[in-house]
Amino acid sequence: MGRHTLAHMNAPAIGICFDRTFRAAEMPDYARRAEAVGLQELWLIEDCFFTTAPPLAAAALASTRTLRVGLGILPAVVRTAALTAMEIATLASLAPGRVIGGIGHGVQPWMRQMGVLPASPVTALEEVLVAVRQLLAGERLDTTGEYVTARDVALEHLPDPAPHVVAGVRGPKSLAAAGRSADGVLLDSPCPVDYLLRAKQLCGRDISDFDYRCFAALCVLPDRREARRAVAPFIAEALGYGHAGLAALSFVDELRELTQRHEADWADRTPSEWWTRIGAIGTLDDAMEYVEAMTEAGVRSISFFPADDLEIAHAQLDTAGIIARQVHAGG
Question: Rounded to an integer, what distance in angstroms lies between the CA atom of residue 224 and that of residue 226?
């Protein structure tokens, strides 16, 4: 694809995440910076036992005018479905059209710690997704399921428009459930192009009526070799625990062999085209090649996952802003 192809395509929204290690007090400034550099979305990580996404979202929305804010990802079983719907509706009413709900399984060991581990995570997620979307659409909920029970429940304050609710999931069964029960899916970082293509097959939904969103790796430096080396430990670690995104790569076996055989210097031995399929890694041109490939594959938004060092993350905000401006200027 050429550098100007995006001008003729449905260019995706470009955003960034707020790392779970960042203090809540940093949110207003972080959100303002994201909006100022031209980013369209900000995703808020809810991991146990750091910060919760809804109050962070309220701070981000109050500090900006146009930035869309995603809740990424609310564990399905920690709150009741009605309360999850209420929180999403409240935020969406404060900032109409600027909130994206996100619901997932939650990390299972954390769910066990809190005493809410479901026997069937997929069933629990699907019941919650269906219930929350029904409530946000103004329907009255009266149901008895394995995990969601509600008696004549309806929201008193309906957001207009009703916000989309995406499923933050990884595995085949969960992606299929997302296709049946959500407005879209949010794929975890690293998100290779191959993973997006696989997710489209598993969700079984066309991009015209289903949101395919992702978190993505970002490491852009003047020296692409330095950038690849910097991100190599993260890729190797994710490969080691069987990350679903990397497992979808057509060259995953060769990649695994390289990381095992060459350890510290494996990044220098990989073809350039591997990196531009895995993420925005290398030079700015390399990052744009990844974004263009993801756009061609049908992604609706790409939100980059920053370093857990706030100073580095601020620099990455600027880089993500450059990418956003190039994407929406057509290259």
Answer: 5
All residues at 6 or more sequence positions from 218 whose CB lies less than 8 Å from its CB, including other chains:
279, 280, 281, 287, 304, 305, 306, 316, 319, 320
Beta bridge partners of 70: 43, 100
Q: Measure the CA–CA gap between 89 and 83, rounded to whole angstroms.
A: 10
Q: Which residue has the tokens 């036992």?
A: 49
pTM of the model: 0.94
Q: Is the peptide bond before 16 cis (omega within 30 degrees of 0)?
A: no
Quote the CA–CA distance of 267 and 319 in Å, as a whole number. Answer: 22
* Distances from the Cα of 151 to the Cα of 76, 79, 84, 118, 141, angstroms: 19, 16, 16, 21, 7
Q: Are strands 184-187 and 141-144 parallel, antiparallel or unpaired?
A: unpaired
User: How many other CB atoms sit within 10 Å of the CB of residue 120?
Assistant: 11
- pLDDT tens readout for residues 108-148: 999 999 999 999 999 999 999 999 999 999 999 999 999 99
Percentage of the chain lying above the pLDDT 70 cut: 97
Domains of the chain in sequence order: 5-219+285-329 (3.20.20.30)
State the Cα–Cα distance between residues 195 and 72, nearest whole angstrom.
19
Structural Rg of the chain based on CA atoms: 19
Cβ burial of 263 (10 Å; 0-12, 13-18, 19+) is exposed
CA distance 57 to 69: 6
- Residue tagged 């997932």 (tokens): 104
| Cβ-based neighbour number of residue 7 at 10 Å | 13
